[in-house]
Amino acid sequence: MRELLEAVADGSISPAAAEAELNGYVTSEAGRFDAARQQRRGIPEAIFAEGKSAAQVVALAETALETTGRALLTRVDDEQATALRTALADSDPEAAIERRHSTVRVLAPTYEPPELDATVGIVTGGTVDEPVADEAEVVCLDAGATVDRVDDIGVASLARTLDQVDRFRAADVLIVAAGREGALPTVVAGLVDTPVIAVPVDSGYGYGGDGGAALAGMLQSCTVLSVVNIDAGFVAGAQAVLISRAIDRARR
Amino acid sequence: MRELLEAVADGSISPAAAEAELNGYVTSEAGRFDAARQQRRGIPEAIFAEGKSAAQVVALAETALETTGRALLTRVDDEQATALRTALADSDPEAAIERRHSTVRVLAPTYEPPELDATVGIVTGGTVDEPVADEAEVVCLDAGATVDRVDDIGVASLARTLDQVDRFRAADVLIVAAGREGALPTVVAGLVDTPVIAVPVDSGYGYGGDGGAALAGMLQSCTVLSVVNIDAGFVAGAQAVLISRAIDRARR
Amino acid sequence: MRELLEAVADGSISPAAAEAELNGYVTSEAGRFDAARQQRRGIPEAIFAEGKSAAQVVALAETALETTGRALLTRVDDEQATALRTALADSDPEAAIERRHSTVRVLAPTYEPPELDATVGIVTGGTVDEPVADEAEVVCLDAGATVDRVDDIGVASLARTLDQVDRFRAADVLIVAAGREGALPTVVAGLVDTPVIAVPVDSGYGYGGDGGAALAGMLQSCTVLSVVNIDAGFVAGAQAVLISRAIDRARR
Amino acid sequence: MRELLEAVADGSISPAAAEAELNGYVTSEAGRFDAARQQRRGIPEAIFAEGKSAAQVVALAETALETTGRALLTRVDDEQATALRTALADSDPEAAIERRHSTVRVLAPTYEPPELDATVGIVTGGTVDEPVADEAEVVCLDAGATVDRVDDIGVASLARTLDQVDRFRAADVLIVAAGREGALPTVVAGLVDTPVIAVPVDSGYGYGGDGGAALAGMLQSCTVLSVVNIDAGFVAGAQAVLISRAIDRARR
Amino acid sequence: MRELLEAVADGSISPAAAEAELNGYVTSEAGRFDAARQQRRGIPEAIFAEGKSAAQVVALAETALETTGRALLTRVDDEQATALRTALADSDPEAAIERRHSTVRVLAPTYEPPELDATVGIVTGGTVDEPVADEAEVVCLDAGATVDRVDDIGVASLARTLDQVDRFRAADVLIVAAGREGALPTVVAGLVDTPVIAVPVDSGYGYGGDGGAALAGMLQSCTVLSVVNIDAGFVAGAQAVLISRAIDRARR
Amino acid sequence: MRELLEAVADGSISPAAAEAELNGYVTSEAGRFDAARQQRRGIPEAIFAEGKSAAQVVALAETALETTGRALLTRVDDEQATALRTALADSDPEAAIERRHSTVRVLAPTYEPPELDATVGIVTGGTVDEPVADEAEVVCLDAGATVDRVDDIGVASLARTLDQVDRFRAADVLIVAAGREGALPTVVAGLVDTPVIAVPVDSGYGYGGDGGAALAGMLQSCTVLSVVNIDAGFVAGAQAVLISRAIDRARR
Amino acid sequence: MRELLEAVADGSISPAAAEAELNGYVTSEAGRFDAARQQRRGIPEAIFAEGKSAAQVVALAETALETTGRALLTRVDDEQATALRTALADSDPEAAIERRHSTVRVLAPTYEPPELDATVGIVTGGTVDEPVADEAEVVCLDAGATVDRVDDIGVASLARTLDQVDRFRAADVLIVAAGREGALPTVVAGLVDTPVIAVPVDSGYGYGGDGGAALAGMLQSCTVLSVVNIDAGFVAGAQAVLISRAIDRARR
Amino acid sequence: MRELLEAVADGSISPAAAEAELNGYVTSEAGRFDAARQQRRGIPEAIFAEGKSAAQVVALAETALETTGRALLTRVDDEQATALRTALADSDPEAAIERRHSTVRVLAPTYEPPELDATVGIVTGGTVDEPVADEAEVVCLDAGATVDRVDDIGVASLARTLDQVDRFRAADVLIVAAGREGALPTVVAGLVDTPVIAVPVDSGYGYGGDGGAALAGMLQSCTVLSVVNIDAGFVAGAQAVLISRAIDRARR
C-alpha cells in the first residue's frame, strides 16, 4: 500500500485509481463507482443513465474510464450523449466513443480488449427489439465474445425463423429478444440444445402490453428458458458473458 | 294461441313446451331456460353446471330436452352426471347421453340433428387442453358441422405442428386451444388464411399461470386472431358454428 | 428464377419486388416487410406506425407500395402523415393517400382493388370509438368488402340500439367497438345470429379505465362473442375479412 | 339510570339489554354487538357469519334477539343454521326463524315490525344472483319496505328485460344484481329516473371472473349508478332502506 | 309532428330542437347529444370534455344549450374553456358561463332553473378533493337542490370532523369525497342515518395511489355506503339528485 | 471451546446447545434453528408452523426449547398443537405450554423471563383481528413488556374508539390491527403522539378483500404510521419489542 | 380567551396565530393548515407540494411559518421553490430557507429548534434513493435528533455494507431506503438489534419497477421490519422522530 | 426403416420404441411422449404429474422408461407415487425408483447414466425451498453432473451465507432458490463470477406472497441473474445442464 500511495504522490497513478485499487470503489460527486465489480463479478458495472443528469453521467463515465479503461453506459439519451462527447473532447480527446441506439461505450486509447473464445447468438423478433438487443451485444463484444446477430425473425411467418436454425445451433449461448406475445424464444429453444436467455421487450398495447405478455409467456414456456426482466438487454448480455467465460476457460 | 292452449289441454304438448313457444323461455324451479335462443342467436343455451346443485342441473336438462329436443351441458362433474343419468333413466329412458370429459349432451330419441356443410378444425397443444377442446367440439357436432380434431401439437417440438399444415388449411374455421405461454394459435394462424379462434387454457403455474399468460399472449399476437376467455371452449365452438352456418348458407 | 433475375437486370421489375417474390419478404433500412403475408395469411401486413420514426414509416410504406400495390398504416400521427405525403409527392406522385383518423392507406395508381361479396357491419358506442372502428373499416374496404357503419349507439339509451336491429341482421359479420363498460357487443349479439367480433376501446377513467372493464366484460359476456385486444381495430377488421372471404368463396 | 339498574335487579330487564341501553353495545363471549346501530345509523348490525364458529354465531344471534327484538344474519352455512335452530329451540322456543339461501332472520315473538311507505325493486340477471339479492331483500323487508322482486332478466335476451320496464319505473329505488359482464344495471338504469344501486355478483370464470368484470363495468357505467362491493347484498339493501326511509319521512 | 315541422319551417324552433323532440337525440358534427336524457333518466347528459378537441366541446355545448336550455361540461381544460367563451361570445352573447375548477355550466338567458326541496351535503377531506366535489355540486345546484358544502375535514385530526356532525345530520343525502386511504366516508356514515355516497379521489402515491386505496377502502367499509368510480363527482352528484327528487316528490 | 466440548462429553450440556453456542444455529432434521437470533437481532426466531408437518414442528420446538429455554410458534393448527403436547409430555413433561388461537409458547421449567420497563398497547377493530393481535401480544409478553389490550374498537361506531384515548396515550408504543377498510390505525394515530405500528388483517370480501384494502389504506394513511404485511402479528410484536427495549435501556 | 383576543386587538399576535391557538387549525385560501398537529401528534404537518400551485404552496408555507415558527415542505419543484423564495424575500426577509433535493424547510429568525437526545441512522442503497432519504433526514433534524447518514451501500457488493455495521449498531433507530429489489433493509436489520424502518424507493424498470418489488420484498422480509409506502421519506422520518422522542423522554 | 420394422416384427424392439425412433414421439393413451427431446433439446421431457390421474402418470412413465431408459417425473403426489410403484412392480420389477419430495426418477436396469465434467451448485434459503431445489438436483444428477448442495442459507443471518463463499466459487454454475423476499440469489451472485440461475419459491403470505415478491425482486436484482418461473426447479436444473454440457464439451 505504501507503494500505491507513493505512486499517487508522484502522480503516476490518479487518486481515483488508487482508491479503486484499495477499496474496490471510487467516490465521485455522482455517487460511488464499483470499479472492482469486473474482477469480483466478472462483468463491469454499467452506468444506467436513465434518470441521471447529464453531469452525473459524465462524472461516472470519466471515473469508469480512469479506473477500468472503458465506460459502458445504457439508456443514454441524446442530451446525455452530447454532453459526454463534449466533456471527453476536453478531458480525454483520444477516447473512442461507440453508440448503438441508447447504449454507449467509451474506450481509453490504451485499453486492451480481452479475448473470449465463444460465440453468442443474439436473435430479435422485430425492429422494436433492436435497441434492447444492442445493449446485450455491446456487453458481449466488450467482453471479447464473438456475436452472431440475427434480426427480424418473427413467428408470424415461421419460414423466416426456420431458415436460421443452423446459425442458432452454431452459437455457444443464445439471447432471444421479443415483444408482443414473446413466443420467439420458445420456438428457437425448441430447435437447439444450447442455453437460451429470453429477453421480453416493452412493446404491444392494451392487455399484456409494455412487455407483460412477453414476460409471462417466457416464464411459462413449455421448453427450457431462463429469463431476464423486460428490456434488460444488459443483464442478458452479462449472463451470456458469464456463461461464455466458463466455456472459454474450459476450452483453454 | 288458442290452438296451442288446446294442445296443452289435450296433452299433445307439455305446458313447458307451450310456454317456450309463447315466451321464448321456460320457467323451472332451477330458473328460466331460454328455449328461443337457438332461433334468435343461432346457438342453443348451454347449461353451465358448475356451482349448480345436481337437482338444478337435472331440472334444467329435462326442460331443455322437452323444449328443444336435446340438452347441452358444460362443466358437469361426476355427481351431476350420475344424477342426470339416474333421473333420465326414469323420466326419459330412451334419451341418449353422450359425455366427453365435463361436457354432456342428451338427445331425445326423436331429435333430428341439423346438417351443416362446413368443417371446423380443432387443435390442441397438450393433454390438459382436451376437456376445453371437447366443449368446443360437442357444440360444433351438435350444430351438424364436420370436426377435424388434431391433438397434442405443442410448439416445443415444432415438427409436430408443421406436419399438420394441410389439415389446418382444409378447415373452414379453426379453433386452437393452448395453455402455458399460449403460442400455438399464433404459430398455426401464421400458416393459414382461415379465421382462427384462440382459446387460452387454464394451465401453467407461478406468474402467468391459470391461463393468464396464454390469454395475454393471444391478445398480443402479432398475427390475426380473435380470442375467447380462458377455458371458454363452448364460446369458441359456438362462434365457429355461427361462422360455419354463414358459410353453409352461402354454399347452398 | 432465371426469368425473374433477368427482369431485374433489364429493370422491368425492381430488386425489392424480386426479393419479395423470391423470399416473401423485403429488407429495407427500417426492417423487413412481409410482402407475402397477403398470399399466405389472406391479409396484408399493416405498418404499425406508433413508436417508429417518420423516416422508418416512409421507408416501410414505400416498400409496401412497391411490392404489394398499396400500403396500409395504423396509428399514424400528424408528423408521420406529413412526412409520408411529402415523400410520396416526390417518389410516387400519382399514389392516392386516404386518411381516416390515425389510419392511412396509400394506393398505387395501377392498383386493382379486389372484390368481395360480403357485408361487414361496424358498430360503435360513441365518438371515442370511431378511430378504432376506422382501422377496422379501412381493412375491410381494402379487401373489397361492403361496410355498413352504424355509429354512436350507446346502451345508455337503448332505443338508439334497438332501432338498428335490421341493419345488424343484414350483415354477414359484425364488429362492435365500445369503451367504458363495454356492454354494447353483448346487447347487439343477443339480437342477431351473426358472428360478432367485439373490440374493447381505451376509454373511461378510474378503476377499469383504459379499456380494462370493456375487455373483461366482453370476455365474460353471457352471449357468444370473440374478442380482440383493446383498440385492436386492425385485428378485428382482418378477422372479419378472413370470415368474409370464406363466405365469398362459398358464394361463388 | 337508577331505574334501569333496579329493573335489572328485579329481573324485568336482562343485564345484556341494560348494557345495550347504557353503552350502545353488548359484550358477549363472541365479541361486542352494536345494539345502538339501528338508532344511530338507521339500520341494524347484521351478523356476518362467514368465518365464525357455530357457537359464536349462536351467541351473537341470541344477544341481538335479546337487545333489539330480532337478529339478522348473512352468509350462514348449513352447520351454523342447524346450531342456531337447536339453540333457539332451547333458549327461545317461540322465536320465528326465516331463511333465504344464506340469509337468516330470527324474530322474537314480541317483535313489532316497522312500517315503511316505500317500494324497493330488486332485479337479478340469473339464478346465481339470487342469494345476493335475498340478502338485500331481507334487509328491506326487515325495515318494513315493500319489495318488488324481478328475477332472471339477463341482457342476453333483451326482450325479457324490456318487458318489465313498468315495474322498474314503479319502484322508489332499485337494486340490480348481476354477475359475468354486469351490464344489467346499466341497461335498467337507462330506462328509469329512479336511483339504482348496482351489486356485482361473484360469477363468471377466467379473466374478470369472481365478479371483477361486473364491478369494473358498473363503476364505468355510462349512465348513473352507485355501486357496492361484490356480493354485498346486505349493503345494497341497507342503502335502499336509508333512501326509502328518507322518502317515507317526506311522505308523512 | 306536423306542427313541429311547421315550427321549424317558420323558424320558431331550430332543426336541432325539433330533432331532439322527435328522436330524443341531436346529431352534430361532434357526435349525438342525448337531449331526452333529462326526461327519461332525470338528469341531463353532461359533456365529458377530456380527450375531445375544443371544437367538439363547443359544438356539443351549443347543441345542449339550444335543445335543453343549458350545457353541463366536466373535465374542461383551460384551452377548451377559452374556446367555449370565445364561441359563445359570438353565437350566444347572453349566455351565462359558470366555471368551478374543471366543471362548466352554460345557461341560456331564458333558462328557468328547477326547484327541488332537498338538501345535499357535500363533504371533502382536503384541498385535492375539491374539483371532484365541485362536479357533484354543480349537478346538484343545476337540479335545484340546496347544497351544504363542508370542506377540508380530514380524519387525521378527528375533532375537525366531529365538529360538523349537526350539519351532516341536517342533509337529506350526503356525498363524501376523499383520497389517500379514503376513511372519511366511513367515519361520517357511522355518525348519521342518511344515505351516503362515497367518492374516491385520485390522490396519494406509491401503492394504492391514484385513488386505488380509497376505492378499495370504501367498497370494504364496515358501515353502509354506496360508491362511485374514482373522481366520478358527476355521477355522485347525479345519484344524489335522483334521491333528492324522490324525496322532493314525496314532500309535495 | 475446549471447555464447551468437555461439557458435552460429560453430558452437562447437550450437543445441540453446544452447536448453538459455537455456530449460532442448530441443525435438526427439520432444518436449522437460528439460536443466536435473540442475541444478534434482539428477538427470538419464531417457528412458522404453516406448511410444516407436525413432526417438523415438534423437532424445531424441541430444539428451540433446548437451546433458548423456550419456543415460540405461530400459525399452529390443532393437529400440530396436539402433536406438540404429546411429544413434550414425553420428552419434557415439566415444560409449560401456552396457546392463544394459533400462537403457542412453550417454556422450560428453568426459564427465567426477562423484564422490560415499557408498555405496548395492542388495539383491534373486531373479533376477526384477535388471532393476529394474539401473535403480537405473545411476542411482547415473551420479551417482558407490559401489554394493554383493547379489543373490538371499530370505526363504524366512533364513540367506542374515542372512549379509549387515555389508554392509547398511556402506552409507549401502539400496535393497531384492523381488516376491511383498515381505517382504525389512522384514527388512533391521529389522537396520540406515540409510534403506531399498523397491522392489516386478512378479512373482507370482494374487491380489496383478504387484507388488500387495509394494507393499501394503511400505506396511504394521511397521518404517520409504519406498516407490516397482512396478518404479520409476529413482526408487529417484534418491532414493538425492539422499540420497547430501546426505551427500557434509556430508562435504566 | 379574552386575553388572546385582546392580544389580537393590540396586534401582539396575528389573527392566524390566534385562530391556531383556539381551533388548532388555520384557514388560508389554500386550505386549512393543522397547526396543532405538532402538539397532538408530535410531528408538524408537512406541506405536500406535488399537485399544488406555487401560490398555494406559498400561502401554506407562510401560514405554517406564522403559526409554528417554521415550514416543512416535501416534493417541491423548482418553480415552487423559486416562488417561495421570491415571496419570502418580500414577506419575511429574515427567514432562512434550506433545500435538500425536493425537501424544503423555512425557519423564522426567532425559531428555537428543539433538542432530542437520540440518533437516527439513515442508510441508502444508491444515488437514486437520496432525495427520499433527504425527506426523512430533514424531519429528523427538524425535531432535533442527531442523524448519521450512510449513502450508497448496495447489496450487490456486500463488503460496502458490512464495513458500516458499527455505525448501524450505534443508532437508536434506523431508516433504510432502497429501490430495485429492496434487499438492503433486510440485510441491515439482520445485523443489528435496533428497530429498522424500511422505505421502498421508486426505481427499477419492467416487472416490479416503480418501487413495487422493493415494497413487496420489504413486507415479505424474513427478518423484522416495519415499512412505509414507496418514496414516503417523510413518514419514515416522522416515525423515527416519534420513536426517538420516546427514547429521549426515557433518558431524561 | 425396413430393419426397424423387422425388429418390431421379431420382438427385439417394442412398437413404442420403434415409433419413438421414427417420429420422435410416442402415442400412449395419456397423450404423446416426446422421446426425441433429449436428442434435439439436450434434456429429457419430464412428466409434469400435477393435474394428471395416477393412471396417466403411470402410462407416461412406462412409455418414457421403454423409449429413453428412464422416466423423470415432477410434482408427483403420494397417490401417484404409490400407483407407479405398484404398476412397475408388475411391469418392470427391476426398475429402480428414486424419490426426493415430489420429484421421482425411474431407471431401467440397463440404463447407462451419462457423465458430465461440471459442477452445479444448488443453494437454498430455507426448508421450504428444498422440494424445488430437489427438482433441480434430480435433473442435474440425471445428466451426470456433480451437484454441490448448500441448504438453509437465509440472508436474515448473513454469516451463514458468507461462510459458504468458497463452495459457491467452486461451482461451474449456480442455482439459488429462495422464497419470501428472494434476496439470496442477489447476495450470492454479488460474491462470485459464476452464472447464477435464480428460482423464486412459492412461500410467504399477504402482499407479495406465493413467490410474487421473490420473482419481482430477482427480476429487479441490481446484480446479474437470469430467472425462471416460481417453483420451476426443473427448468432451472435443465438450464444448468445445458450450460454444464457446453462447459463439458469445451473441456474435452
From TrEMBL, chains A, B, C, D, E, F, G, H:
**Residue spans crossing the bilayer:** none
- Domain PurE residues, every copy: 118-249
Q: Name one Pfam family in it.
A: AIRC
Gene3D superfamilies reported in the protein's UniProt record: 3.40.50.1970
* Entry-linked InterPro entries: P2CMN_synthase_LarB, PurE_dom
What GO MF annotations does this protein's record show? hydrolase activity
Q: Which GO terms describe its biological process?
A: 'de novo' IMP biosynthetic process
* Coiled coil segments of this chain: none
Name this protein carries in UniProt: 1-(5-phosphoribosyl)-5-amino-4-imidazole-carboxylate (AIR) carboxylase
Task: Give the source species.
Answer: Natrialba asiatica (strain ATCC 700177 / DSM 12278 / JCM 9576 / FERM P-10747 / NBRC 102637 / 172P1)
Upper taxonomic lineage: Archaea, Methanobacteriati, Methanobacteriota, Stenosarchaea group, Halobacteria
